[in-house]
Design brief:
InterPro entries: CCR1-9-like (IPR050119), Chemokine_rcpt (IPR000355), CXCR4/ACKR2 (IPR001277), GPCR_Rhodpsn (IPR000276), GPCR_Rhodpsn_7TM (IPR017452)
CATH topology: Rhopdopsin 7-helix transmembrane proteins
Number of strands: 3
Main location: membrane
Low-confidence stretches: 1-38, 355-370
CATH architecture: Up-down Bundle
Shape: globular
Distance between the termini: 78 Å
Pfam family, one: 7tm_1
Strand order of the largest sheet: 1-3-2
CATH superfamily: Rhodopsin 7-helix transmembrane proteins
Number of domains: 1
Structural class: mainly alpha
GO biological process, one term: calcium-mediated signaling
CATH class: Mainly Alpha
Mean pLDDT: 79
Order of helices and strands: EHHHHHHEEHHHHH
Subcellular location: Cell membrane; Early endosome; Late endosome; Lysosome
Helix content: over 70%
Radius of gyration: 25 Å
Length: 370
């Protein structure tokens, strides 16, 4: 899900992959560079990376921090009354929040076309990025499964829902996400370029055949874990839910049906265009699609734009899975009211202490002067 940015090539081919995409453009695309392909990099791609990517990533980061931060805050204030759905919302918001925290690093990387943060942060940002990217989409699959159990098997779903929300989610979401980040721990490195600048990339081992195998494997891992598996679960569960709700009447049922359709459409509208680009790029690497410079340039531009659209899903998650609920709105109002009251009390307390201190000093001054 990241881009390997064109670096100056000294061998038959070198592939660099940065978690955030290009090591030098900070976007999330997969780019393949061959010594014969260097003429395929158009000038407007630089403008796209250095201007479009930092702006979009910054907007996503700000919106993601506000939305997901509010969800985490509200969930923290309702620990005792937290439902199983709320637990998934908390997992999702934590994953999205940590994910968007990596975007400022990639924004700087894209704007400057170089890495300023050193080798340690290169690995850390790659790992955090990958873990929370995969955990986010896998949690969406768990939410759809939870909704399926709650609606289709409402009478006897309490125990399996509790098991999924409290135990299985760690074994089937966070653990696989951590394991999928192992290649980042191994291959994410800072490399010095000929001009003295540094790039943060996934640098796969040579020879060329080994590097190519890692590239292709990563792309298909990305497609399978990031889209196919969660997509199949989401589509299957929600289609069964739609079938169930369509047989019922009433305003609440219609609203639930409408919300379910929105969840499906939003997920695939955000992610499918991006994965289409990765899929075509993987086929190019395998020579299943004949290489052309025009197609190569198109794929790079396509991935830059569609990746930003895919990442925007992190901003939509709080709205789709939390803000639309009446219970969450009420909880949010209570949490914000509690926070504002607490802040007001602290300010009043400080003012009172300040006035008391002034009063004491005044009395002391009067006493000594007399």
């Amino acid at each position: 899900m990241q881009i390997a940015d064109p670096a100056e090539m000294t061998q038959e081919f070198i592939y660099t992959f940065s978690d955030n995409d290009n090591g030098s453009d900070g976007s999330g695309n997969f780019l393949f560079e061959d010594a014969n392909y260097t003429d395929c990099e158009p000038e407007d791609n630089d403008d796209l990376r250095r201007i479009f990517v930092p702006i979009i990533y910054s907007v996503i980061c700000v919106m993601g921090v506000i939305g997901n931060g509010l969800v985490v805050l509200v969930m923290g204030y309702q620990q005792k009354s937290r439902t199983m759905t709320d637990k998934y919302r908390l997992h999702l918001s934590v994953a999205d929040l940590l994910f968007v925290f990596t975007l400022p690093f990639w924004s700087v990387d894209a704007a400057a076309a170089k890495w300023y943060f050193g080798g340690f942060f290169c690995k850390v940002i790659h790992v955090v990025y990958t873990v929370n990217f995969y955990s986010s989409v896998l949690i969406l699959a768990f939410i759809s499964l939870d909704r399926y159990l709650a609606i289709v098997h409402a009478t006897n779903s309490q125990k399996p829902r509790k098991l999924l929300a409290e135990k299985v989610v760690y074994a089937c979401v966070w653990l696989p996400a951590l394991l999928l980040a192992v290649p980042d721990m191994v291959f994410a490195k800072v490399r010095e370029e000929k001009d003295g600048s540094f790039t943060c990339d996934r640098i796969y081992p040579e020879p060329a055949e080994t590097s190519l195998a890692w590239m292709v494997a990563h792309r298909f891992q990305h497609i399978i874990v990031g889209l196919l598996l969660p997509g199949i679960v989401i589509l299957t569960c929600y289609c069964i839910i739609i079938s169930k709700l369509s047989q019922s009447k009433g305003y609440q049922k219609r609203r639930a049906l409408k919300t379910t359709v929105i969840l499906i459409v939003t997920f695939f509208a955000c992610w499918l265009p991006y994965y289409v680009g990765i899929f075509i790029d993987a086929f190019q690497l395998l020579d299943l699609i004949s290489y052309s410079c025009t197609l190569e340039i198109f794929i790079r531009r396509w991935l830059l734009v569609t990746e930003a659209l895919a990442f925007f899903h992190c901003c939509l998650n709080p709205i789709l899975y939390a803000f639309l609920g009446a219970k969450f709105k009420k909880s949010a109002q209570n949490a914000l009211t509690t926070v504002s009251r607490g802040s007001s009390l602290k300010i009043l307390s400080k003012k009172r202490n300040g006035l008391s201190s002034v009063s004491t000093e005044s009395e002391s001054s009067s006493f000594h002067s007399s």
